[in-house]
Design brief:
Blueprint: E1 10-11, E2 15-17, E3 23-25, E4 33-34, E5 45-48, E6 51-54, E7 62-67, E8 81-86, H1 100-103, H2 109-115, H3 122-131, E9 136-139, H4 148-160, E10 164-169, H5 175-183, E11 188-192, H6 197-204, H7 208-220, E12 224-231, H8 239-253, E13 259-263, H9 270-273, H10 281-293, E14 299-302
Parallel strand pairs: 8-9, 9-10, 10-11, 11-12, 12-13, 13-14
Antiparallel strand pairs: 1-6, 2-3, 3-4, 5-6, 7-8
Bound molecules: iron/sulfur cluster.
Iron/sulfur cluster (SF4) binds at residues 25, 27-28, 30-32, 40-42, 44-45, 91, 146.
Length: 304
């Protein structure tokens, strides 16, 4: 870890030692078993002498003060702005990634971390948020679960200054991490459901049931939840898939949960999988209609 800025390195609270010198990372549901000297799937967690460390505490790849509607969170403090930061890496492998330059950067996440010069302390982030007249914070751009230790410190300070805290996530954190975020003052989260069980397993390498579990947990604990469905032409745009997702949102999360259908553009490895043109507007409008017919009251389309 010598090549990495010392300030980016922090011992993880969420890990379990295994009997064979490796440790299990308990930040997200991948639960990587990491050998001595190796990093987990996302490239942001490393095992050094039997302990797992984050390599991206305060390692900021992108930051800006922008409208809360951009998350998208349309029904949470509309008209306000959130100071938004993100880092490198991702725990999913979606071929359509719209933020691949930071989530799956070339040549590697490790290289980006090693060359990153932008350290932003939680205190400095809050100061910048206040100076730029933001009403809250947002951890976004790449998967925010990977910035967990940093987010918890940011959230604590934000609460002291009466700022709200938000996440834009794939919702794949462990249950323990979801509860920790709630305890530290997460106020709102946008979760991208991505598709049905088979699609999420095949293209994202994840179990979507864990995402539904977390969405329910956040709602039960008073966190404002909005759901995004990024529509990938011919992969998750068919009528039955949209019907199933809408039904599930209504039955398991509630008919008033704001639901977004957003347009995707070919990106990252899209060519390889045959996703070569932006999602058709017709299918976006159709999805909104289907969701309304299934009983959802608050349905938006976006990115058009
Ligand atoms: S955060 Fe997730 S993907 Fe990254 S090392 Fe931990 S369990 Fe693996």
């Amino acid at each position: 870890m010598d090549s990495i800025n010392k300030r980016f390195i922090k011992k993880s609270k969420f890990q379990r030692k295994l009997s064979d010198q490796s440790s299990e990372c308990l930040i997200c549901e991948r639960k990587c078993k990491i050998r001595e000297g190796a990093t987990g799937f996302c490239g942001t967690r490393m095992n050094s002498e039997g302990e797992i460390y984050t390599l991206i505490y305060g390692c900021i790849a992108a930051e800006s003060c922008n409208p809360i509607e951009m998350k998208p969170l349309y029904n949470f403090h509309p008209g306000t702005k959130a100071y938004t930061v993100g880092s490198y890496g991702c725990n999913f492998s979606c071929f359509w990634c719209q933020n691949h330059h930071i989530s799956h950067p070339k040549p590697s996440v490790r290289k980006k971390i090693e060359t990153c010069t932008n350290y932003l302390s939680p205190k400095h982030l809050i100061q910048k948020a206040i100076e730029s007249q933001c009403e809250g914070t947002s951890i976004s751009f790449n998967e925010p679960t990977l910035l967990l230790e940093y987010a918890l410190d940011v959230f604590d300070l934000a609460r002291e200054k009466s700022l709200y805290n938000t996440y834009v996530s794939n919702g794949y954190m462990t249950e323990r991490v979801a509860k920790e975020l709630i305890d530290h003052g997460l106020d709102a989260i946008n979760i991208d459901i991505k598709g049905d069980k088979e699609l999420v397993r095949k293209f994202c390498g994840a179990d979507v049931e864990k995402v539904w579990r977390n969405a329910k947990l956040f709602i039960k604990n008073g966190v404002h939840v909005e759901i995004t469905n990024l529509l990938i032409e011919d992969f998750n745009t068919d009528i039955q898939t949209i019907k199933n997702i809408a039904k599930r949102i209504k039955n398991e999360l509630g008919k008033d949960i704001p639901t977004h259908f957003t347009r995707a553009f070919p990106s990252y490895n899209s060519d390889e999988f045959g996703f070569i043109k932006p999602t058709s507007l017709k299918k976006l409008y159709r999805s909104r209609l289907i969701a309304k017919k299934e009983g959802l009251n608050v349905v938006y389309i976006g990115n058009i």
